[in-house]
Amino acid sequence: MKILCVGFWKTGTKSLSKALTHLGYNVYDYEEQLVNLKTTWNKFFDGTITDKDIYETFKDIDVLIDGPVIVFWEEIYRVFPEAKVILTIRDEDGWWKSWKNMQDDFFAGSYLLRISIMVSPTARKFLHSGVKIFGMAYGFDNSLSPFSMDWNANERLYKMKYRKHNCYVLHTVPEDKRLVHISKEGWEPICKYLDHDVPKIPYPHQNKNASLFKEQMAGPLFKQIIKEFKLIVAFLCVVVIVVLAWWLAK
């Protein structure tokens, strides 16, 4: 474990993820964490995780960013105290606006999501994990179901949690072991901190205007969800045809 990226969602984490990948690191972003490390995260969730579990799971991963690591970074950092820590931040009002827009867009298009959750085991597990992660990060108990898709848009509470998280990281991690990064600063602070040459390409700008969900639709997780959806729909169609044929033959 070389780098723990502990900034909240919508602080430039997707841009940083792509930047670190370009620098040659083996990056585990939100999707990789939930798909490949679900057993470990479940142990974190229920409180049965051990330092040995943490070491064995993360010893061959270079970077953790986004998702569960935002909540459990301190436990991982205790096991890998030599890991570098990167805290991405942005101005509080801009962060809230971006976070709210992403959540509003996600829940506004929830009809297809509801159907997927009802028929796809992968979609249900993904939603279940997401609810736990956000609940632990923000202190909400958003028990979502396929028939009730909404989120608690309490601006004051979200901003308070955002400030507390950033302050706690700054208080806990020694100054020489951390980098506070703002996306608009680009490559130079990151490359200096990690001792890399500055690439000759522009710094990435991912998830602009909450475009992440469009990008993730092409990823392995959503491909699996779509595959399960198609299989279930095909099965139901066959059942309907068989029942209809039986009824007509009576």
From TrEMBL:
Domain of life: Eukaryota
Family annotation (SUPFAM superfamilies): P-loop containing nucleoside triphosphate hydrolases (SSF52540)
Chain ranges passing through the membrane: 231-249
Keyword Phosphoprotein set for record: no
Organism: Phallusia mammillata
Record protein name field: Uncharacterized protein LOC100181738
Xref: Pfam families: Sulfotransfer_4 (PF17784)
Transmembrane helix found in the keyword field: yes
PANTHER family in alphabetical order: P-LOOP CONTAINING NUCLEOSIDE TRIPHOSPHATE HYDROLASE PROTEIN (PTHR36978:SF4), P-LOOP CONTAINING NUCLEOTIDE TRIPHOSPHATE HYDROLASE (PTHR36978)
Keywords, ordered alphabetically: Membrane, Transmembrane, Transmembrane helix
